[in-house]
Amino acid sequence: MGGDAAVIRAARICYQSTARSPEADVRLLRRLMSSEPRHNTVFEHAVFRFFVKCPLFVARQWMRHRICTFNEKSLRYCIADREYYVPQGLANTEAYVCHMEASFDLYEQLLAAGWKREQARGVLGTSAYTEFIWTVNAWSLMNWLQKRLDPAAQWEHRQYAEAVLGIYREVMPVTATAFEELVLKR
Amino acid sequence: MGGDAAVIRAARICYQSTARSPEADVRLLRRLMSSEPRHNTVFEHAVFRFFVKCPLFVARQWMRHRICTFNEKSLRYCIADREYYVPQGLANTEAYVCHMEASFDLYEQLLAAGWKREQARGVLGTSAYTEFIWTVNAWSLMNWLQKRLDPAAQWEHRQYAEAVLGIYREVMPVTATAFEELVLKR
Amino acid sequence: MGGDAAVIRAARICYQSTARSPEADVRLLRRLMSSEPRHNTVFEHAVFRFFVKCPLFVARQWMRHRICTFNEKSLRYCIADREYYVPQGLANTEAYVCHMEASFDLYEQLLAAGWKREQARGVLGTSAYTEFIWTVNAWSLMNWLQKRLDPAAQWEHRQYAEAVLGIYREVMPVTATAFEELVLKR
Amino acid sequence: MGGDAAVIRAARICYQSTARSPEADVRLLRRLMSSEPRHNTVFEHAVFRFFVKCPLFVARQWMRHRICTFNEKSLRYCIADREYYVPQGLANTEAYVCHMEASFDLYEQLLAAGWKREQARGVLGTSAYTEFIWTVNAWSLMNWLQKRLDPAAQWEHRQYAEAVLGIYREVMPVTATAFEELVLKR
C-alpha cells in the first residue's frame, strides 16, 4: 500500500510543499533517507504484506521484530506437514534427515496415542517449516533488512532478506535504491 | 489496504482452513470480534490512510494514540493559515473570534519583526487548525473509535470519530458491522 | 519499578488531584481498571523484569507479545543444554524421552563434525528449554495474563501465567486485586 | 529502573557469558553501542520516569515519540494555570506578554460564562505550560536525545534534552558515556 508516492506525500505535508518535477521528489526522498537523525515516520505510510514459509528457527528470529504484525499457522490447531529444512553441502546430512523423519514418525504416533497437537509438537525440530503472513511498514521493513542482510546474520535468514529486498526494489524503486546506496552502502 | 479479505485470510492461516461460503467468513469474523480475550493481530493486516484537518486541541488528543503514524504540517517550517475553530451556539463567541484574529495579527507582526516561526506560533490558540496524514491499522483504528465515540469523549473529537466510522463501514462492511454490534453495542 | 504508587501518581496528574486517604487511592484505581474504554497509559508507568526458563514452544507464544522487551539465550552463540520438557501422565513418554535424548546426541555429533551451532540446532525439538529476560509494563503484563490465563490457552503456558500472577499480587497488591476482580472476574 | 547493570545482564544472557572484570563490562557495553546494525533490545531493560513541565509547543513535539508512556495534566478537567513561556532577548516581547495575559483573561471570562474547560482552552496559545509524567526505556530515550539534541531541533526543546542527558549521565554513567562518544560523537 502506498509505495514511493505515500512517502513523498507524507514528507510534503510537513513543509506544505509541492513537487516541481519527479527529480525533485527523488532528491527529497534521498535527503530523508540520508539525514541523521533519520526521519522515520514518513516511511511508515507505505505498507507491505508478505506470505512467508520458512524453518522455525528462522521464524523465531523474524518474530523478534515487533513493529509489524504476524499471523502464523498454529500447531495447536493444525497437524504439522512433514516438511523441514536440510542444510546443503555438509557432512552427516543423512543422519540429520533420518532423525527428522523419525521425529515426524513419533509425532504421528503420539497424536494417534491421544496426545494433544500442542504437546506432541515438542518433538519436532526447529528445522520444520512454518507459514505466516507478515504485514510491515517500509520503515520497519528497512530495519529488518539492515539487520538480516548483515554478514553477521544467519545465512538462512539472509536468503529471505535478499528475496524481500528484490521485491522492495520492484514495488518502491526510488526508496529502495536510496536505501541501498545511502544506508546499506552496497 | 486489505479490507475484510485481509482479516479473514490472516485468521484462516492460523487454522489452515478454507471458506466454504461468504456466510462462513462472516461467522468467523464475528467470532474473532466477540471472543474474549480478543484476537487483535488478524485485524492489523488491514491498513487505512486518512488526511485530517482539525483544531490543535483535537490533534493533541489524537496523537496520544501510538500504534499508528502521523505526519503533520509543521509550524516550524510553514506559516500558519488564519483558520481556527469556533464553537457554535455559545455566548461570547464574538470576543472569542476577536481574540483569535488578534492572535493571528500578533503572529504576523512577530514574524515581520524577525521572530522564528517556531517561537511566534506560541501566541496561536489551540483552536487553530492543523493538518496531518494518519496511517493506522484496523485494530488500532477500532481502539481509537471506541475511545473517541464514547459519550465521555470531547464533542469535537467525536464528530471526527463518527465520520471515520462512516468510512470504515464503507471500506470494511463486515468488520465494521461486527464492531458496531458486538463491541460498540450500538 | 513503580508499583501501585506509580499508577496512582500518573492518574492524579491528569486531574491534578491529591489523595485524601489510602481508600481514595484504591477507589481511583478500581475506577481506572473497570472503566470502559479502559485507561491503559496510567498502568504503563509500573514496569517489571522477569527471568524466565521455559520450553521453546511456550517461548514462541510468549514472544508474540510485542509491547515488551526480550533478550534470550542464543543458540547461535551458546551450546544448548540437554534440558527439555516432558509432559506428565501421558502414554508413550518413554519413546518421547528416548527421542529427545537421541536429538541431543545427534546435535552434539553434528557440532563435532563441524556444523555451525545455528544449523545443528535444527534437530532439537521445541520442548527443549530456553531462557530469557522479559521487561514489561503492568498494562502489557495484564494483557498477557488475560490471554494466557484463559482456559483456552495452552496448559503449559498457563502455569507460567499463574506464577506471574502470584508475583504481580505481591508487588502491586491494589492493582492486581482490582485486575482479578474486575477484569479476570475470578 | 535497572541502570547499566540491567543492560549488561541482558546482553550476557544471549551469550551466557559472565564478566571477568568491570572493564570487560564497559568493553561489552561500548561494543553494543557502536555495532551497526545496533542492538536495541538490551538497552530497553533500563527504564526512566520523568516529571516534565514545558510549553505546549514543546510537549507536542515530545509526544510524537511513541515508544514510551505519557500522562498529562488535562485541560478538560483542570483549569489552566496562568503560566506561559516567554522567549528571551527578542523585540516585541511586551506585546507578546500582553497578548498572553489577555488570552488568560478571556479564558477565565469564557469559563465564567459557562463554557466548558475543553472548549475555552482553544484561546490559550501553545506557549502555555503543561505538565506530564514520562516513562521511557533507555533505548527510546537515546532516540529522543539524538533527535532533540540535534542542532536542527528547536532551541527550547534542546534545553530539555541537555538537562535529561545530564540526568542520564548520573544514573547510567557507562551507557551514557558510550552514547555520547560513539553515537552523539561529542
What do these coordinates show?
- 4 copies of one chain form a homotetramer.
- Chain A is of the alpha+beta class and 186 residues long.
- Chain A has 8 helices and 3 strands.
- The first copy, chain A, has a 3-stranded antiparallel beta sheet.
- The two termini of chain A are 26 Å apart.
- The model of chain A has no long low-confidence stretch (mean pLDDT 95).
- Chain A binds chain C through residues 55-57, 60, 63-64, 66-67, 70, 75-76, 84-85, 87, 90-92, 95-96, 99-100, 102-103, 106, 109-110, 113-115, 118-119, 121-127, 154, 156, and chain C through 55-57, 60, 63-64, 66-67, 70, 75-76, 84-85, 87, 90-92, 95-96, 99-100, 102-103, 106, 109-110, 113-115, 118-119, 121-127, 154, 156.
Helix content of chain A: 40-55%
User: Any idea what the shape of chain A is?
Assistant: elongated
Compute the gyration radius of chain A: what is it? 21 Å
The total strand number of chain A stands at 3
Quaternary structure of the protein: homotetramer
Q: Strand fraction band of chain A?
A: 5-15%
Total DSSP helices of chain A: 8
Largest interface: A-C, 40 and 40 residues
